[in-house]
């Protein structure tokens, strides 16, 4: 499905929604959707992403919004045995909490990054599950031959395939909570997204998808439902951490050239 695109608009919005919705305290974990509903263990110190840190990728970097936008809990493990298993598998489990907000009229999003290639010359994938709320995963290939938005709701898995950079957007009115499993053998690459002031498109309140004017010719923006994307060995709705407790084979997160669970961008 191709998505209609609004014309680029980079000006000041004039009216700005509050960055943190009522009842959400980003740094203090007391969001309206309690993390204890999804994570019964202790949490590491949060990494908080603020508006100032995000200005370089916002549609309106001069917007008057300020303060925290979202919080990440990286390298979570329920038990010492799980942590040992993660280390042996070269994997990490993260949680991200994104309250609803529209800084400068743009739906709140993650900063966006690319993944490098592994030793076999294949890009590292990443496996997500939406735990609460709804998400738009905006994916684009490095050569910009494909740009696709994957819509996902609570329980849905989204596998970001090799060769795609990605941004996650909270387009709803609820707190978005998501988890991910990813290799520890690489560092995310933010440079291209910072240089281009974001992904190829911005999702704007009341305007829909607006093309980032800093990009040249782009393909039509495609739309895919996470539920329609083929997955192997994983069922939507099953808890993502169950892949850890069951010691499932997650080799594909480090060696996708051998085996991969699926492709969320399938047409």
Structural summary, described in words:
The chain has 267 residues and is mainly beta. The chain has helices spanning 51-54, 80-89, 191-195, 242-245, and strands at residues 5-6, 47-50, 68-73, 91-98, 126-132, 134-141, 147-153, 157-160, 164-169, 176-183, 201-204, 208-211, 222-225. The strands form three sheets. A six-stranded antiparallel beta sheet has the order 2-3-4-10-5-8. Strands 9-6-7-13 form a four-stranded mixed beta sheet, with no helix packed on it. The model is unreliable at 1-32 (pLDDT under 50).
* Computed Rg: 18 Å
Helices and strands: which structural class? mainly beta
Please write the string of helix (H) and strand (E) elements: EEHEHEEEEEEEHEEEH
Total beta-strand segments: 13
- Uncertain spans: 1-32
Largest sheet features: 6 strands, antiparallel
Question: How many individual helices?
Answer: 4
Strand order of the largest sheet: 2-3-4-10-5-8
The separation of the N and C termini measures 9 Å
**Portion in beta strands:** 25-35%
Mean pLDDT, all residues: 87
The global form is: globular
**How helical, in percent, are the residues?**
under 10%
């Amino acid at each position: 499905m191709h998505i209609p695109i609004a014309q680029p608009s980079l000006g000041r919005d004039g009216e700005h929604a509050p960055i943190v919705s009522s009842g959400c305290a980003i740094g203090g974990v007391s969001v309206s959707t309690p993390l204890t509903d999804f994570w019964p263990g202790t949490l590491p110190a949060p990494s908080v992403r603020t508006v100032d840190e995000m200005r370089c990728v916002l549609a309106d970097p001069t917007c008057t919004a300020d303060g925290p936008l979202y919080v990440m809990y990286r390298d979570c493990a329920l038990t010492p045995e799980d942590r040992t298993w993660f280390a042996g598998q070269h994997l990490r489990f993260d949680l991200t909490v994104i309250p609803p907000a529209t800084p400068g009229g743009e739906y709140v999003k993650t900063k966006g990054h690319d993944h490098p290639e592994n030793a076999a010359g294949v890009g590292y994938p990443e496996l997500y599950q939406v735990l609460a709320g709804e998400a738009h995963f905006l994916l684009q290939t490095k050569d910009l031959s494909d740009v696709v938005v994957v819509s996902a709701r609570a329980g849905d898995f989204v596998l970001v395939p090799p060769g795609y950079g990605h941004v996650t957007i909270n387009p709803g009115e609820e707190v978005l909570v998501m988890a991910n499993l990813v290799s520890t053998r690489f560092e995310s690459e933010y440079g291209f997204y910072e240089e281009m002031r974001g992904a190829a498109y911005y999702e704007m309140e009341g305007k829909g998808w607006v093309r980032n004017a800093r990009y040249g010719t782009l393909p039509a923006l495609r739309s895919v439902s996470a539920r329609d994307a083929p997955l192997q060995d994983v069922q939507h709705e099953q808890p993502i951490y169950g892949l850890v407790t069951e010691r499932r084979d997650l080799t594909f997160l480090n060696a996708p050239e051998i085996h991969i669970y699926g492709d969320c961008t399938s047409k």
